[in-house]
Structure formats: C-alpha cells, structure tokens
C-alpha cells in the first residue's frame, strides 16, 4: 500500500508539473474568436478601440482580420497595416515576477514592403520579419522574464498609411520550467520506475 501511495503522489506531482508548463497565457492567440462573423475569404477592418477581436486591444489606426486570403496563415490572421494602418495589438497577461516565459508567433505578409513587426513583452522589445507570404511561414520563438504580476504583450506595425503589411497569427506565451523543476521531474520518474521494479521483483 505504501508503494501505491508513493506512485500516486509522484504521478500527481508529474501531472501538475506538465500542466503548469503547458498553460497558455494568451487569450485567442489564433484570432479565431471574434464578436462578429469571420470574413470568409476576405478581410474585416477593426479600428482602434474596437473590441471585435476577443482578448485583444486594437491601437493606433486599425488592423484587418483576414481569412484564408491576403497572406492569411491559418483561418483568421491579422494584417497589422489595417485599412489603412498602421495598427497595433496588445493584451495584458497574468504573470509571476522573475518567471521565464516562452513567446512564439507566426508571420506572413500581405504584399507591399512592410514585412517587419515590432513587439514587446513588458519592457523587452524586439523586431521580427516575415520571410514568405505562403507556407512555410516564419516562426518566432524567444524567452522573456516577467517583471511583475502583469505583463503587457504588444505588437506594432512598422508601416505607414498603407493597406498591406506584415501578417500575425498563432501567438502563444507559456511558462518555461526552471532547471530544478526538470531535475525534480526526472528524479520522480526514476523513483517511480525503481518502485515499480521493486514490486515486480517481490511479486515474482
């Protein structure tokens, strides 16, 4: 019975570890949730302050929700130059101070010369550039450390008053487990294996 309880405790701890690491902080990172019908095969202008894109705040002038057209990546994507732009998107995330997070997203572009996007995770800023307007798309992945209990994630168009620019999709932010957490997980898995082998040996 003692061994069974130990196995169950380790299994619960391992499950909790995996759930924490995989928890998605971004709401509607694929932009499929809209307060209106998706613009199937077309585009929908979303002006600054409009709440059409669930979970996101639109700033500057406008962005366009594009759907399976104009360089869209997967279903709904966002053309950051709007009609016209430039535009921005932001979302306030619940974070833990000094915790490291993995930020990732995909980029395409809708014609024109504006293939860059500026983005920020709190006070950390960076720039990425789309490399193709069709699959395979550019995939960005980087790690950032949160400064406090909330962190602003934001994306900014680098273009001017134009209608065709960089396209954003599949935004994700997840926890990066600390090295000691990996060590604890491996030790736990090893202990579970040892207990299982010991039980098998005693029963044979």
Automatic annotation (TrEMBL):
Residues 176-199 form the Ice-binding protein C-terminal domain. Residues 25-173 form the DUF642 domain. Keywords: Signal. InterPro entries: Choice_anch_C_dom, DGR2-like_dom, Galactose-bd-like_sf, Ice-binding_C. Residues 1-21 form the signal peptide. The keyword Signal applies. This is PEP-CTERM protein-sorting domain-containing protein.
């Amino acid at each position: 019975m003692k061994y069974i309880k130990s196995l169950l405790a380790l299994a619960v701890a391992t499950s909790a570890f995996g759930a924490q690491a995989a928890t998605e902080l971004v709401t509607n990172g694929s932009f499929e949730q809209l307060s209106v019908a998706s613009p199937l095969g077309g585009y929908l202008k979303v002006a600054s302050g409009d709440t059409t894109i669930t979970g996101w705040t639109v700033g500057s002038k406008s962005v366009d929700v594009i759907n399976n057209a104009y360089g869209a990546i997967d279903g709904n994507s966002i053309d950051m130059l709007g009609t016209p732009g430039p535009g921005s998107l932001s979302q306030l995330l619940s974070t833990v101070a000094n915790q490291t997070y993995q930020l990732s997203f995909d980029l395409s572009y809708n014609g024109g010369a504006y293939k860059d996007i500026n983005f920020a995770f709190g006070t950390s800023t960076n720039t990425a550039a789309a490399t193709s307007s069709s699959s395979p798309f550019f995939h960005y992945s980087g790690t950032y450390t949160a400064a406090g209990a909330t962190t602003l994630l934001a994306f900014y168009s680098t273009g001017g008053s134009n209608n065709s620019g960089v396209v954003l999709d599949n935004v994700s932010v997840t926890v990066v487990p600390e090295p000691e957490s990996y060590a604890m997980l491996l030790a736990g898995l090893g202990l579970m294996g040892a207990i299982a082998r010991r039980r098998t040996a005693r029963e044979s």
